[in-house]
Amino acid sequence: MERKWWHDKVAYQIYPKSFMDSNGDGIGDLQGIIRKLDYLKDLGVDILWLSPIYCSPLADEGYDISDYYAIDPRFGTMEDMEELIAEAKKRGLTILMDLVVNHCSDEHEWFKKACEDPEGRYGKFFYLRDKDPGGKLPTNWRSYFGGPSWAELPGTDKLYLHVFHTKQPDLNWENPELREEVYRNIRWWMEKGIGGFRIDAIINIKKPAVFHDYPADRDDGLSSIQNMLLEAEGIGEFLGEMRDKAFAPYDAFTVGEVFNEREEDIPLFIGDGGYFSTMFDFTAEIFGRSEKGWFDTKRLTIDDFRECMFAAHRKIGDIGFYSTIIENHDEPRGVSRYLTDEMRTEGGKKALATVYFLRRGLPFIYQGQEIGMENKRIRTVAELDDISSIDAYKVAVDAGISKERALETLTFFSRDNARTPMQWNEEAHAGFTKGEPWLAENPNYTCINVQEQLGREDSVLAYYKKLIALRKDPGYKETFVYGAFEPLPDCGHNVIAYLRKGGAQTILVAANFNTGERQIKLPAGGCTGGKTLLVNEGEAAFDGSVLTLKGLQAAVILLKI
Ligand code: TEU
Ligand code: CA
User: Fold this and answer.
1) Hey, what domains does the chain have and what are their CATH numbers?
2) What residue's CA is closest to ligand 1, atom 3?
3) Of 61, 170, 200, 261, which one is the catalytic site residue?
4) Atom of ligand 1 nearest to the CA of 164
């Protein structure tokens, strides 16, 4: 595998709307991010991915873009953006923008022009179909956010395709003129001095050659978008072209949001010279998903989580680098999803951090994860902002699920969990804003906040700093960054253990998520003369053949074999 500048870095995702509000309007902004750059530098991260800050009606919180060349005034100005890029650069930090080009907003001028003249240039930027007089839709595809994926093109007798929300019309990638517009925009941003992009929902850009119905999978008579995606062939032509025309000239760093990748596609996507630098490993995020809806999702245990992790590494081997996460702006908080109430102590949170962070891959930290932010109890539907959660509630209730259980599902899965304001201190609204926050903060900010943890050696935040420093330590970098990932199977229920081998050394990473003590049998040669590199709490007890971990203890040990 060819070595790249970003392999030994650590990335951090900022959800700008909820990170830091500098002017008291309740909405996080670019000046707020600038104020916190020293905090991020001190944490030790290198790459900052910003969720979208372009002009947008915010129907899907910025993933519906009305102008790819302008900053939404709620987030700031282009001057603020330039200042952010420059200030980041001064500190050795690289900015990634979010590339959202499966769809734009229905308030984008392309879409407005398509409505005025569906047969003209911009009509061809979208997937348009004539309306059937009998009302039958072109296909029975269900949009990701609920309901049919076809809507009326305003003022015309046509329909347009939207696989996400009605305010997110799909862009027609079959049209070379549209593709050139996308590449022009990418190059324009690269010229501004960003390091690259996180690439949104990219797998959706290729549709099947023939549009047709699939068997319905719910009572609404519609069929999941997944069926259409399974039939779509040839996405590589678009992705290869985008790489060659837009990313490669700048050696841009790119991370793809790719779901359900086929095993044989991994080398093409992220092998040497692949379409992207890296892509997220979502194996654990998609575990247990059900066509019926969120309410029917099977929750995973620590044993499931371990198997997902091991399966992902078997799949990727050393073909390339996954980007590893435990949460993002679409997912529940990792500590709420993967840990049970019993496990969700500071020790348990650090143990979870240890096992995901030291995998082979590029670790991403989502804002607030570094202080162990948790899901928030959702008491009424009225509290919800996220369109996906609102639909999930309706789907659950329509399926006969009680309102109480439907709300419980949302407390577990809602995308709003990750979008509550960043908890900076114990002042009003967690120190996020001097005004009223756009989305209410999690009331636990009085206990879980940055300021409190900065002052405490044994905090989750202090532990994340140690993990970051350990991965970058020149003495172990070769092992943590490039070393092989070798699972230690059969360590027992609620235990995750693996070896990292490389740079002529072997490092054991192990965590016990039980509340009682557990013993882990070590490979021949074991820990005799081994050295503890990191432990979340207390001390690691080991001899030649066995590592004994206390309840919720995690340890990283340099083995002498
Ligand atoms: O997400 C793509 C996607 O497939 C999501 O629908 C995901 O499966 C879901 O959010 C899980 O709950 C991206 C963005 O990350 C998301 O925020 C956007 O809403 C979506 O694309 C549309 O742009
Ligand atoms: Ca603001």
Assistant:
1) 11-101+176-462 (3.20.20.80), 109-161 (3.90.400.10), 485-560 (2.60.40.1180)
2) 201
3) 200
4) 22
Q: Which two tokens stand for residue 48?
A: 């900052």
Scan for tokens 């840990």, then name that residue. Answer: 339
339 in the Ramachandran plot: left (φ > 0), alpha (ψ -120 to 50) or beta?
A: beta
- Protein residues within 5 Å, CB atom, of ion ligand 2: 21, 23, 25, 27, 29
Please tell me whether residue 461 adopts helix, strand or coil conformation.
helix
Q: How far apart are CA 348 and CA 343, in angstroms?
A: 5
Separation of alpha carbons 55 and 130, rounded Å: 30
Write the pLDDT tens digit of every residue in 123-182.
999 999 999 999 999 999 999 999 999 999 999 999 999 999 999 999 999 999 999 999
Report the half-sphere exposure of 198 (CA within 13 A, side-chain side). Answer: 24
12-31 mean pLDDT: 98
User: Does the active-site annotation cover 61?
Assistant: no
Say if ligand 1 is within 6 A of residue 338 CB: no
pLDDT, tens only, 90-114: 999 999 999 999 999 999 999 999 9
Is residue 219's pLDDT more than 70? yes
Minimal-distance CA residue to ligand 1 atom 9 = 330
Q: What's the CA gap between 166 and 152, in Å, rounded?
A: 9
* Number of the ligand 1 atom closest to the C-alpha atom of 145: 6
- For the CA atoms of the chain, what is the radius of gyration? 24
Structure tokens of 493?
Answer: 């229920």
What ligand 1 atom has the least distance to the C-alpha of 259? Answer: 4
Q: Is the pLDDT of residue 524 over 80?
A: no
CA geometry: angle 361, 200, 355, nearest 5 deg: 25
Sign of the C-alpha dihedral computed for residues 159, 163, 164 and 169 taken in this order: negative
Helix (H, G, I), strand (E, B) or coil at 18: helix
- Which pLDDT band, with edges at 50, 70 and 90, does 329 fall under? very high
Known catalytic residue: 426? no
pLDDT digits (tens, 9 = 90+) for 438-455: 999 999 999 999 999 999
Q: Is 200 near ligand 1, meaning CB less than 6 Å away?
A: yes
CA dist., res. 312 & res. 358, Å (int): 14
According to DSSP, the residues that pair with 130 across neighbouring strands are 158
Residue 41 has pLDDT above 70, yes or no: yes
Q: Strands, E, within 72-162: which ranges?
A: 94-99, 128-130, 141-142, 150-152, 158-161
Q: How far is 44 from 367, CA to CA, in rounded Å?
A: 13
- In whole angstroms, what is the distance from residue 466 CA to residue 281 CA? 23
Q: How far is the CA of 329 from the centre of ligand 1 (A)?
A: 9
State if residue 388 touches ligand 1 by the CB under 6 angstroms criterion.
Answer: yes
> How far is C-alpha 3 from the chain's CA centre?
24
**Ligand 1 centre distance from Cα of residue 190 (Å):** 24
Closest C-alpha to ligand 1, atom 1: 201
